[in-house]
Amino acid sequence: VDHYSRVFIVNQMVEDSNSRLDALFASLSDQTRRAILLMLLDGDLTVREIAAPFEMSLAAISKHIQVLAKA
């Protein structure tokens, strides 16, 4: 592998790593998602149990959970 190929490979690794970090930090930037994570520290919960303390629909909570799962 020549020098330019190595540089390309390293750049791709950094970009992939950065996008994963970006997704992680974006998911944690939301207060609701941070609260959900804190709730889950005590163990598994159903979506209804997670949604109980929040004034939002099950669909909205599910979306937050999906964002966390993808991160």
Task: Give a short summary of the structure.
With 71 residues, the protein is mainly alpha-helical. The chain contains four helices and no strands. It has helices at residues 3-28, 31-40, 47-51, 58-70.
Task: Tell me about the largest β-sheet.
Answer: none
Overall mean confidence score, pLDDT: 86
CA-based gyration radius: 18 Å
Structural class: mainly alpha
Helix content: over 70%
Uncertain ranges: none
Q: Order of helices and strands, N to C?
A: HHHH
Total DSSP E strands: 0
State the separation between the terminal residues, measured CA to CA. 33 Å
What is the overall shape? Answer: elongated
Number of helices: 4
Strand content: under 5%
Protein topology:
Elements: H1 3-28, H2 31-40, H3 47-51, H4 58-70
Helix pairs in contact: 1-4
Outline the structure in words.
With 71 residues, the protein is mostly helical. The protein contains 4 helices and no strands. Helix 1 (3-28) runs antiparallel to helix 4.
Short key terms for the protein model shown above:
71 residues, mainly alpha
